[in-house]
Design a protein that fits this description.
By secondary structure, the protein is an alpha/beta fold. It folds into two domains: about 210 residues, P-loop containing nucleotide triphosphate hydrolases (Rossmann fold); about 100 residues, no CATH class. It contains twelve helices and eleven strands. The strands form two sheets. It has an eight-stranded mixed sheet with strand order 5-6-7-3-8-9-11-10, with helices on both faces. The radius of gyration is 22 Å and the shape is globular.
């Protein structure tokens, strides 16, 4: 197997709180991104997704572990990794034309090599590649819709020909129809430019559409990881089961099965205990036992093939599947 484009090994990130205490945001996170691959990071707010992105680009302190760029990216790490942020309304300078904003990375990284005419030509070409007319380069962000602004932000990220683009919730501020357009654009650009994506989202259904691999995070630790389709179609960790069950379903049978799963997983909300040598999900898990309190589950290979950090994943899957099957007939509308 070729060298990973990005290798994250045992990543630990601690943040300093105002009174001097440390809060662990990431705890022993490891994954790889191969050339031409899209890897999704999924989890609720506070799970550590954006902290991983910030650690990769040097904006978050790394307490332990390593972030390694390979596949030729290590030679020019700053331009080899670019980011597309969540809010297209705040990621572009409202006082600058979009042509100026898109060209800015070129001026930073290649200002001494390229003349003004070459910068302008590359900027217009990049805008056209994301579906924005070259003549629009003289306009300002306020003159574009949210979806168009995100296309402009993508053009700005791609103009220095990065090997890896980190999309940090890049679709969440857009409506569903525009999300579909941006997903199609990202797929097209991946095929055209041969880039890799680290795609951060809270929506597992979107990740399944776009990603090859997925890493499910909860409270800074990996709960489950593996091929995106396998994790989505046959989740093993109870947290992942809850994420999948929360995805809206059109089919009434699938909707009933999801409802049954959500009911089975429902537990009174309890304060999250400190991250210790125990399961990080134990306070929310209806299947938690004394073993979950006393030992931290390691990532284990299933027959998925996925890796799951759960002491009882086989029992959990069997219990949830049986419960859903038994309740579907009663919950499905009768003709």
């Amino acid at each position: 197997m070729s060298e990973p484009l990005l290798s994250v090994e045992g990543l630990v990130v601690d943040y300093q709180l105002p009174r001097g205490q440390l809060r662990r945001a990431l705890d022993d996170v490891s994954f790889n991104v191969l050339a031409g691959q899209t890897v999704g990071l999924v989890g609720e707010s506070g799970s550590g997704k954006s902290t991983i992105a910030r650690a990769i680009v040097g904006l978050a302190p790394i307490t332990a572990g390593t972030v390694t760029l390979g596949g030729g990216a290590a030679a020019a790490p700053r331009q080899s990794v670019q980011m597309v942020f969540q809010d297209p309304y705040s990621s572009l300078d409202p006082t600058k034309t979009i042509g100026y904003s898109v060209a800015e990375p070129l001026r930073v990284h290649h200002g001494r090599e390229l003349g003004a005419q070459e910068v302008r030509a590359r900027t217009e070409q990049m805008l056209e590649s994301v579906g924005i007319q070259a003549s629009a380069a003289k306009l300002y962000p306020a003159q574009f819709s949210g979806g168009q602004r995100q296309r402009i932000a993508i053009a700005r990220a791609l103009i220095v020909k990065p090997k890896l683009v980190i999309c940090d919730e890049a679709l969440s501020a857009l409506d569903l129809s525009v999300q579909a357009q941006i997903i199609n654009l990202l797929v097209q650009l991946r095929e055209t430019h041969g880039i890799s994506y680290l795609f951060i989202s809270h929506d597992l259904s979107v990740v399944e559409m776009l990603c090859d691999e997925v890493v499910v995070l909860y409270r800074g630790r990996i709960a489950e990881t593996g091929p995106a389709r396998a994790v989505s179609n046959r989740p093993r960790h109870p947290y992942t089961r809850g994420l999948v069950a929360a995805v809206p379903e059109i089919d009434p049978v699938a909707r009933a099965a999801s409802r049954a799963t959500r009911e089975r997983l429902r537990k009174p909300v309890a304060p999250a205990p400190p991250l210790e040598d125990s399961c990080q999900y134990r306070h929310r898990c209806v299947f938690a036992t004394e073993q979950c309190e006393q030992s931290r589950p390691a990532l284990r290979l299933t027959d998925g093939p996925t890796l799951v950090a759960c002491h009882r994943y086989e029992e959990v899957a069997r219990d949830l599947d049986e419960k859903a099957e038994s309740e579907i007939p009663a919950m499905t509308p009768q003709s």
